[in-house]
Amino acid sequence: MQPETLPLFPLNTVLFPGGPLPLRVFETRYLDMVGRGLKEHTPFGVVLILSGSEADTAPAVADIGTSARVVDFDTLPDGLLGITCIGERRFRLTRRWQQSDGLNLADVDYLPEDAPHPLPAELSHLGELLREVLPRLGGAYAHVDGRYDDASWVSNRWAEILPLTPAERLDLLRLDDPLARLQQVAAWSERQPPAAGV
User: Fold this and answer.
1) Is 42 in contact with 32 (CB distance < 8 Å)?
2) Smaller CB count within 10 Å for the chain: N or C?
3) Rounded to 10 degrees, what is the CA torsion of 89, 15, 157, 20?
4) Looking at residues 67-90, what average pLDDT do you find?
5) Does 83 share its domain with 38?
6) Is this model's pTM higher than 0.90 or not?
7) Given this model, what pLDDT does residue 197 score?
8) How many domains does the chain have?
């Protein structure tokens, strides 16, 4: 299978499939990337920065990330472009390079998508609690379709809203088994309450 080429948006966050990502976009390289994506209906890749900053031209990034697609955009009160994206598919970087405008590109291999799996009865409370929590988190989840009985979907939403470190979130993104991811977030959910926002 041929790798797919994606423009990359390195961030200090981990995006999960099916999850929302609101962004303020102001750098020319990313404004151009978003414009192209909207025009051509193509995704971009979100990868966690391991060292460096979002303003760096070539920060060190994780070798695994998630493709994202813009689902809404608006001009923010400060005049910047605000976009809302939804995570789509996990991928692994195979090669990375940079365009002359500073935009990072990468060849990626998409990882297998999680198969639908019913939420185990002993963890059904995690789905029910999400039904209560997500509406309180504001507009970011307005574009997210709820699948409160699916183990993968529930584990990904908890991975987003629990107050975890970026490294812990990255470890969860690396897990190919949605039930293993669910067991891990269940263990972490017992040690701390969900974050007030995302």
Assistant:
1) no
2) N
3) -90
4) 89
5) yes
6) no
7) 45
8) 2
